[in-house]
Amino acid sequence: MVLKQITHLTSIDNLTKEQINFILDKSKQMLNILNSKKTLNICKGKILACLFFEASTRTRLSFEAAMHRLGGNVIGFADASTSSAKKGESLTDTIKTVQNYADIICIRHPLEGSSKLAAKYCKIPIINAGDGGHEHPTQTLMDLFTIMIKKNTISNLKIGLCGDLKFGRTTHSLLQALALFGNEIICISPEELRMPNEIKDKIQNYGGKIFQTENLNEVINKLDILYITRIQKERFISEKEYLRLKGRYILDKKIMSIAPKNLFIMHPLPRVDEINPEIDNDKRCIYFQQAFFGVPVRMAILEIMLKI
Amino acid sequence: MKKEQKIRKIINGTVIDHIKPDCAIKVLSILGNIKDECVIICINAKSKKYKKKDIIKIENKFLKEKEYNELALISPNATISIIKNSKIIQKNNAKIPDFIKGIGKCRNPRCITNYEQIDPEFMVVCKKPIILKCIYCECNTKYIADKEEKIL
Ligand SMILES: [Zn+2]
Predict the structure, then answer these.
(1) From CA A129, how far away is CA A112, in angstroms rounded?
(2) Are A276 and A251 in contact (CB under 8 A)?
(3) Contact yes or no for A134 and B115 at CB 8 A
(4) Is A58 labeled as catalytic in the residue annotation?
(5) What is the pTM of this model?
(6) DSSP strand E in chain A: where?
(7) What is the pLDDT of residues A106-152, one digit of tens each?
(8) A108 given a catalytic annotation
(9) CA of B111, closest CA in chain A: separation in Å?
(10) Which CATH superfamily is domain A137-291 in?
C-alpha cells in the first residue's frame, strides 16, 4: 500500500503523486458521506490533539469538525496563551508529553520548521497545520481537491496565482503541487512580492511551466483558475509600503465582467479587500466552498494517517 | 623547506596546514580537548600556492568528525596530517561534507532552531561559496568563516 508510508505530514514534499491522488480520492468519498448526512464511527476511541501555538480559527475548526465527523475526540488548545508554552516550555517537551495523550497531533506554530522538529521527537503522526511562513500542506491538499471537484482534473490547466507570492506560504506549497501535476502557472504579483527563487528552483525538475507578470487584466482571459491571496500586513516592516501594495489587485464586478465564464476564483481566506463582497454570489467564486472542503480533505488525511 | 623547519616538529598529534590566513584562531576555537596539549600556531606563514597561510600543530590531538567538517567550512583548502612517532601516517585534504549537524546557525530569525535547545542541521547546497540549507525551515544561509555571524 502506497500510503502506509505517510507517518508525518509536515510538507507537501512528503507526498508522492500517487499519495496525493489517493488522498483526493478518499476526500471525494468523505465528501459524499458528508453530503448524504451519514454518520461515521471509524475514529471512535481515537483522540486528535490540536496544538495551536498561534490562533487560526478556520484551520482549527475544520480539523476538529473532521475528527468529530469521523466519530473521534479532540483535545488541545487554541492559542499559546492557554498552553504551557507561555510558561516557557519547549516545543519538544510539549510534544513528548502530548504524544502519550493522543493518537495523532495537528500543530500550528508561528516558527518555521517547528512541525518538522516536532515530528522528529514524536512517536505518533504529526500533521503540520501551518509553521510560520513555511508550509501548510493540508491547505494545499484542499486547494487541489477544490480544483479537482470543479475542473475534474488537476493537470494541464492554466492557473493564475495572484497577490503576495513572496510571503504567502499557501502559494508556495500550491505552486509545487501544481507543477508536480504538470500545470501551467502564471504568477501575478508586484515586483516586490514575487515568488522567491528558492521555490522556483525547487520545481525546476517537475515539468510544470511558470510565467511571471504584474498585470492581471492582461492574463485573466487565459486562465482556468485564479487563486488570489491577501497581502499580509504582518510580514511588512513599513506600514507605508503595505498600504502602497495592498490595493494592487482587487476583484470586483467590473473585472468579473471581462473574465471567462469557466474561470473559477479561489482564495485561502481570510480576505481583506482583494475580493469585493459584491461578487460573492457569482457562481465562479468558489472560496467559501473551498473552505468547506477543508473538512472532507482533513477527514481523509486523519483516516489515512491513523491507518484505520 | 627552510621556512617549514622554523616551526618545531611534533611527535604525536595533528598538523593542520594551508589554513586560510588569519583563520588559525578561528580553527583553534572549534577544536575541543586541547587545554593541556602543546599547541604551535604559525600565522601568515609563506605559501607558494596561496602566498600566505596559517599552520597549527597540536600534540596528542586527533580530529573528530565534527571538527573535520567545521575545519573544512572555515578553510576548505586546509590539509590535515596525522603524526605518529614523528612520521606522517596519514594526510588528508579538508573536505566540505554534504550534511552538517551542530555547526553554524540558521540565519532565518523565524526559524525554530533559534529558539529550541537543539543542534541545527544543514544540507550543504553549494560549496563555493558555502551555502547551507536548514533542514527545518529550508532557508539558505551563507557560511562565512572569518565572521561568527552567518548571513544570507
Ligand atoms: Zn532554519
Answers:
(1) 12
(2) yes
(3) no
(4) yes
(5) 0.86
(6) 47-52, 73-77, 104-109, 126-131, 158-162, 184-188, 209-213, 225-228, 264-266
(7) 999 999 999 999 999 999 999 999 998 889 999 999 999 999 999 99
(8) yes
(9) 5
(10) Aspartate/ornithine carbamoyltransferase (3.40.50.1370)
